[in-house]
Write the structure tokens for this entry.
Amino acid sequence: MKGRTSTRLMIFLGFGYAFLYIPIIILIVYSFNASKLVTVWGGFSTQWYGKLLEDQGILDAFWNSLQIAFFTACFATMLGTISGYVMARFGRFRGHSAFASTITAPLVMPEVITGLASLLLFVSLERAIGWPEGRGKLTIWIIHVVFATAFAAIIISSRLRDMDLSIEEAALDLGAPPLKVFFVIVLPIIAPALLSSWLLSFTLSMDDLVITSFVAGPGSTTLPMKVFSAARLGVSPKINAIGSIIVAGASFFVLISALVSFKMEKKRKKEAEQAFEAA
Amino acid sequence: MNKSGLVRFYPFDEIALFTTMTKEKQKISANADNSKPYIEIKNISKSFDNFVAVNGINLEIKEGEIFALLGSSGCGKSTLLRMLAGLETPTTGEIIIDGRDMASIPPFKRPINMMFQSYALFPHMTVEQNVAFGLKQDRVPRNQIKEKVMETLKLVEMEAYTKRKSHQLSGGQRQRVALARILVKSPKLLLLDEPMAALDKKLRGQMQIELVNILEDVGVTCIMVTHDQEEAMTMASRIAVMDQGNIIQIGPPSEVYEFPNSRFSAEFIGTVNLFDGKIKEDRPDQVMIKANDLDADILIDHGVTGTLGMKVSVAVRPEKIIVTREQPDSKYNWTQGTVEEIVYLGGFSTYYVKLDSGKQVVATQANLNRTIHERPSWDEKIYLSWLPVSGVMLIK
Amino acid sequence: MVIAIPLIWMVLFFLIPFAIVLKISFAEMVIAIPPFSALWEYSEGVLNIKLSMDNYLFLLTDDLYIRAYAKSLKLAFISMSLCLLIGYPMAYAIARSGPSIRNILLLGVILPSWTSFLIRIYAWIGILKNNGLINNLLLWLGIIDQPLIMLNTDIAVYIGIVYAYLPFMILPLYTNLVKHDYTLLEAAYDLGAKPWKSFVFITIPLSLPGIIAGAMLVFIPAVGEFVIPELLGGSETLMIGKVLWQEFFNNRDWPVASAVAMVMLLFLALPLAVFHHYQSEEAL
């Protein structure tokens, strides 16, 4: 009885995966379509990828996105680690849930609201103190850090909750002051979570459209903004091409980090087994 | 089992646990010289919101002593230990170590080191790095570190495992590394938090004795926390029984076992029979008690006194009770009952005897007779008796 | 203390903006830079505060907005339910698999959500178009002789939202289901309960925190969605996110846009509170 249910479930799961992946696969396949009509196959061709390299607008937008994403990832990981540590370790201070709610609020908030609010903030600031002057990469970066930190904080705090608190106490007990404990003991142990946070923040920043549109300025067009304005006009194989590159790039990041943590886990298991047999 | 001397057994486990009296004598006599307390815990309390975890504890520990805080979970023993380590701040009271007040000193500056229940080895460091960590914080020169680390690892017999990481070690090995990590710093006080809790039963007995040997060799003062009375009795030279933030009784294991000062202590350690009654007669050095459940009165002939009519309990340990088929000659300290249950354990048997009043009494006897017919059997009517010196009168 | 840094960052760049949105929603639109009136004037020792309720009245009276709010809530709710119906069995199947396969299966679900949101929505345009993939296939197979109108309809928006947010439903569900103690179910079988009964009376109640977390993770952002209705929806797919965008970028009416945002927040206040409550509970 259980076996039959499992098979039915697995088939359903298979259909689920098909639903998730087929549209992406179609997108990639048709990026190699020689014909301009996206949905009629006209032969295999890589011309659209070549056309991308000639499009200065897209290249500039890509470079903007990369810069913003890199600095977002670095800063958000830092702030997220501090927040995550506070949320996980100082669970009992007054205002704890207020702190946690504030840090994680951007997680679910609709982007149009966050985007509008952010823009109005910058405008008001500019009127009040003259900074920031206009909108551009700086304002985009600031807001990206805001919502990426929320994600990083969740990842780091959940990793810390799984970690044995005694390890930090033992380090204190052996003579290391708190700051040293954080850098020499805690950070190395949560290093994989730090990597995940960095990669996630990078991806979120690279992909953001709505909030970025609100706070962008002249000369700070990002790749998603470029793709969106093109997509509004209709489908085009060039968009398929850039889309395929983006999807492939992001997947590459994800798979690498998954592979690394998988290999580390395997090594750890093997060594633990060896110890078991030896004992 | 190992060291010779008087063999005593504590029949509170189905499997007899053997330890030595001489060892205990040694521990006590060695410390008799140091009269000044090395560690003073003065009126220490800790409250969390409205909950009082530790309630005005006073303790004095001598140098080189192995002291156990014994109690069930929630009694405050772990909180007390953490306050000694500096991981919790006392609400009131002082902690003085070798004359120095620890109040303003953070945990990383105290001459105290703790072994955690989970051992808390640093997973990203090798055994050698783990043990060296504490010395590095003290800025000991590198060559000295290496020497001390190897010396301490030899002491715990882990010198072959320097390059391993904690997930490559078994539970017992991890314990040794955790021990080496704290011993290498030659602390003034060593704290052990449930040291045997993470080991499986087979390993525990062996490790208890080994650990004590290492601690005594090094001569370090040690306070350990445990809920396991066997562990406390085996390892410590003095025990403090704790309940709900208070110390109920302090003393060497034999004293706490043989002369409990309260029902709590009597019941917590080992098995005990408690007979309720009233004082009938009070003579110098003797008290006679009319017990509710017994056929004869109880006579206690050592150091007790009380007022007539006072309600008391008398504690008699199972191994002190003699089981016979014939009525004993004495006028006091006996009763009749029916054998309800017998647990045969090879070396001795435990009899669960039901008295006429309905009360159940536990008696343990060595199986001096080899055949089953010479021993009492189920549903047999037998007599239980004990010596006047065996009963302990309890008021609390 | 160092704790203050992320807090300051968030207060400055997240909380204060909302206060500003609130403020602007009481302003009037003017042709100026920035395009809204000042709320207070201080002249000759007198502070004049002018709060205009016009924007909110406008929202209440013009039925476009009411319809947009209603539609957004409806679309978000139905999409959330669809995600739950599809996502629960998937999460259950993954949680029940062997430990080694589990991680790979989970990665398979998460991977699409880490690639570009925009691109994934765009991919559906080519599939749902009148001369898109599905129609071409069905026409070629002879099943239909007129293309089905799928793009620029509500149906396309449903497909888009479910497609985009499905992983966000599966992940919290999985996290919850994988912690279930299956000996509970075995005990139930042993006591005579039929499998479906155990599922309904044991598994589902235990997975409630996961269901709620997943539901909120889909519902709340879906209410304010812009990209999906813009690319896949039609002119009658009135969603409030799109309305806000148009007020802001097309009409340059910042005050009305702000009012729209505040009302949206009002609707979302309850789901947001529910989400944070379950989030902090799970965390404990």
